[in-house]
Amino acid sequence: MLNRKDPVPLYVQLYRKLKQDIIKGVYTNGEMIPSETQLMKQYNVTRTTIRKAVSTLAQEGLVETLHGIGTVVSLRELKYSVWNFSGFTDYLRLHNETPQSVVLENYITHIDGIQYFRLMRGRGVKKDGDIVYLTLDDSLIPVDLFPGIDRYDFSTESLYDVMKNEYKLIPDHVNIQVIPIMGNDITEKLFKIDQSTPLLKVEGCLFTEEGIELEKIKLIYSPNMDFNVISNIGNRQKR
Amino acid sequence: MLNRKDPVPLYVQLYRKLKQDIIKGVYTNGEMIPSETQLMKQYNVTRTTIRKAVSTLAQEGLVETLHGIGTVVSLRELKYSVWNFSGFTDYLRLHNETPQSVVLENYITHIDGIQYFRLMRGRGVKKDGDIVYLTLDDSLIPVDLFPGIDRYDFSTESLYDVMKNEYKLIPDHVNIQVIPIMGNDITEKLFKIDQSTPLLKVEGCLFTEEGIELEKIKLIYSPNMDFNVISNIGNRQKR
DNA sequence: TAGTGGTCTAGACCACGGT
DNA sequence: CCGTGGTCTAGACCACTAG
Looking at chain A, which terminus has fewer C-beta neighbours within 10 angstroms, N or C? Predict the structure, then answer.
């Protein structure tokens, strides 16, 4: 069942087990999974551990907990979410998922007489041996600030980590515009959706604290990616 | 501090309190919030309760927990935003434009046993004797917090001004999700665009400082309205 | 070594939904 | 009424980070 010597926490082991069972069809859509007390006996762990595992499933939208009734399988597409434009790498790490990247384009180009490194990546998570893409990421990086940046392999390296650690230029803030668009042939293939699906596009620039432009960004989000924001509404006096 | 007689769970009360403090700036970006043991003493609850509150904050990306170090605030503050809710009116005045509203729906309704005042408005500016609409604004306002709110004429009154001045409930922050959608027949007429145009929809809630929900918001932006944001990157600064 | 967050136990009482 | 999930307590041991 569960392995107490495994460094992987029990609730993660249980979460994975239940997730597998749901995907495998042991519990089908609309069915109830065993109650928390049943799971306690079955796996010999406390309710706390059960609840942590189940609540992770609920967050991902794989199950729905109904007070006084039970926990039912609600097999929808996995949902991920970005809060306040935070990097999605951090977010995925929180969820025990490994970020995956595929480089679609990378070459040096000239725009308005300035040399840029163009990097286009699909980014997502691994699921059942397959990759589910969550963003299409198209960047222009000025070569004069980052000489030799085209030598890195950005299917495994984090762009921002390279900027920080190798070039000592620290990304600080972005200035972006959010635009609704229709899908194109690239997003169709990458996200496995048809072209009539409206998508979110984010366009803008990344700056250091001093206002040095580090990157021109074009980002398209998969429909599996929720885009959440918490914000003041502006009528406040600062202290 | 926390009220044990309040039907609102302790961890929710604590979550709201901490969120409030973060948004208010009691704990500023990059700073640590009190440790879990400190919070235990401060609020006289167990660590389980503390952890549940903090983990909610972490999920929303307002804090980041660092093993062996502590929990730091990672508020990606949105410094400027044209789309800002209360800022809408101010923004227009700045450009010497007079805000115009047309009430499309207003009635009392029941949802999940709670009474809401539903208010749907088109909002925009006057141009050459004609009105150019910029947003379609669909609100649900709980009647128990705002008794008699259906008596106001919101084609001329500002909703937030009424909330503040007549009911002494001050809108403080929003928690929203940005979604790309296709136009429908209402947006077609209002914005004078055809239905194949992708649009931005914003969905969420408006809260007071204390976390009381004042309004459920659904907002659709005209293509004439840009959605710009400046945001910090979630860099945890060491100190 | 002291303090932090991460995991887990073994209980308790409650609100809810169906019988 | 009973079984369900929702909340909460009062402990324990661990892994990690820093001085």
Answer: C
> Which spans in chain A are helix H?
10-24, 36-43, 47-59, 88-94, 159-167, 185-191
DSSP state of A49: H
For an interface test with A, which of B19, B71, B76 has the most A Cβ atoms less than 10 Å from its Cβ? B76
8 Å CB contact between B134 and B125: yes
Q: In angstroms, rounded to a whole number, what is the distance separating the alpha carbons of residues A31 and A74?
A: 8
Query: Is residue B235 very low, low, confident or very high in pLDDT (cuts 50, 70, 90)?
Result: low
Strands A80-83 and A213-221: unpaired
Is B175 part of the contact surface with chain A (CB cutoff 8 Å)? yes
R_g of chain A, CA atoms, integer Å? 22
Q: According to the model, what pLDDT value does residue B88 have? A: 61
DSSP assignment of B9-48 = -HHHHHHHHHHHHHHHTSS-TTPEEPPHHHHHHHHT--HH
**The pair of three-digit structure tokens given for residue A20, joined into one six-digit string:** 């597998």
A60-115 pLDDT, tens per residue? Answer: 888 999 999 999 998 876 677 776 666 666 566 556 667 788 999 999 999 999 99
Q: What is the CA radius of gyration of chain B?
A: 21
What span, in angstroms and rounded, lies between the C-alpha atoms of B90 and B172? Answer: 16
CA dist A36 and A33 (Å) reads 9
Nearest to B72 by CA among B87, B57, B85: B57
Protein-to-nucleotide distance from the CA of B22 to the C1' of D10, whole angstroms:
29
Specify burial of residue B51 (Cβ count, 10 A radius: 0-12, 13-18, 19+): middle
How far is it, in rounded angstroms, from Cα A217 to Cα A206?
7
8 Å CB contact between A229 and B15: no
**Rounded to whole angstroms, how far apart are CA atoms A230 and B205?**
10
Interior CA angle at A26 toward A21 and A28, to 5°? 105
User: Virtual CA dihedral for B112, B116, B121, B123, nearest 10 degrees?
Assistant: -100
Q: Which residue, among B81, B29, B61, has the nearest Cα to A82 in the 3D structure? A: B61
Longest dimension (CA), chain B: 64
Q: Tell me the pLDDT band of A236, cut-offs 50, 70 and 90.
A: very low
> What is the average pLDDT value for chain B, to the nearest integer?
86
Please answer yes or no on whether A87 and B234 come within 8 Å at the CB atom.
yes
Q: What is the mean pLDDT of residues A187-214?
A: 91
- Say if residues B123 and B137 touch (Cβ distance below 8 Å): yes
Residue B237 at interface with chain A, using a CB cutoff of 8 Å: no
